[in-house]
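Progress report, Aim 2. The chain analyzed during this reporting quarter is listed below.
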Amino acid sequence: MSSTHPLAGSQVLPEMLVNVPLLVSAYYTGQPDPSISTQRVAFGTSGHRGCSFDLSFNEWHVLAISQAICEYRHAQGINGPLFLGIDTHALSTPASASALEVLAANGVDVMLAADDEYTPTPAISHAILCYNRGRTRGLADGIVITPSHNPPESGGFKYNPTNGGPADSDITRWIENRANELLAAGLQGVKRIGYAQALKASTTHRHDYLNSYVADLGSVIDMQAIADSGLRLGVDPLGGAGVNYWSAIAEHYQLNLDVVNKQVDPTFRFMSLDWDGRVRMDPSSAHAMRGLIALKDRYQVAFACDPDHDRHGIVTPSMGLMQPNNYLAVAIDYLYQNRPQWRSDAAVGKTVVSSGLIDRVSHKLGRRLYEVPVGFKYFAAGLFDGSLGFGGEESAGASFLRRDGSVWSTDKDGLIPALLAAEMTARSGRDPGERYQALVQELGEPVATRIDAAATPEQKKQLSKLAPEQVRSTELAGEAIQSILSHAPGNNEAIGGLKVITANGWFAARPSGTEDIYKIYAESFLGDVHLQRLVSEAQELVNAAIAPSAG
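Predicted structure tokens for the chain:
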């Protein structure tokens, strides 16, 4: 990783807080220039994200994207309700109002949260799937307005089609292109009515996301076992969209659960600073999670989720905050041995930069590994039809099937991995940290790192198109190279870089989408010295492959 900021882990200083009135004012007053690439609509793996201060996320973007979604729905014959949810970022509420003005003008049936409740990403996915169950026409889809764990000044806008998961790139490309056409036309072609009129429209409805989601949790987690155990549980919603969900869960299932932070504040002033000295609500970061980690001995299991509650962080007395990959391996090991109704051939989903420990766990369990590029969208189809029991990303995002083997959510769900940590503790008497320690005694313990290395735009382009045969090395860190991948083995999609694997280690190199760097992810089962050697040789290998003479 890059060097840690001297203030990492300390409380946010007042002068660091975002000026919310200025931010919201900039949302309404800014006008993006579509000839400047950074001011255009750009859908990454998690929708369109940006900030109103630099004209990368404002009302113009939201109006254009919303109109493009209306036109996409019409073209695809999608005419069921659209489930709309928002998180607690300052730009999410105004963006929701802008979106509703367009959706109502286009005659779309919109399901807003009852009592204007904030809505986690998984509650939207769950609502879409519940509505569409047994239907072949009049299908529902959804929008989640969130930049996930990104800093307070960020805004984000995601579209979830009828399968409930993140939209695939063919859909987002269509929406992006059409939205940019509308921007270039000065929003000509955008249908819009006033907000008050949109709220009163016959197509605008209210939906109780909170209670529908909470009441159904027993179908995916053994809530009775948690209740019966009397486990002392703590949760920090990090000021996110699930802040009221946790109290409702505790009450509904009679859990011994404390919500240690009920604050909602768009400046997120209650956070400790992340590794780079920025406010970031990342439940997998020990710096951002300092507050909850300090309480680890008070609870038998504690957990946190980010603002849209699609990521989880697990804190145990035995290990403190668990590394996301380590917990994913433990969750997989537990689930596939404790879900007898799942299909016997239900595969394990992971990304190419997730831990090799998951590979070893899958092999131990006799389960097929489904390895894909970074992006949860690649798990949606498998979770939908039950051919995947679990899908997880190295960045602490995961979802899995209901106990009966049917679909729960096809987008990341931060709440159910958190509750699963309580279930496995209740049923086995060992917390996830203890289960991890037992697992690595059997399968070997990984050490991992991620570093950034400088690269020119041309070198980044070369890296993204590298073919395995361009790597001439046969050894890596003293071990024979077993495979070199430019495409993910699960679905044969390009990984946008290269992954090199040996018996006890691997690295993956991918260019950054935003900076003149490439990222190296590396992992070793032979300790820190081997890991450092692996990283050093990985850099040499990549640099040789993208050197001008190599082309």
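The mean pLDDT is 96. The chain has three domains: 14-207, 213-443, 447-550. These observations will guide the mutagenesis work planned for the next reporting period.
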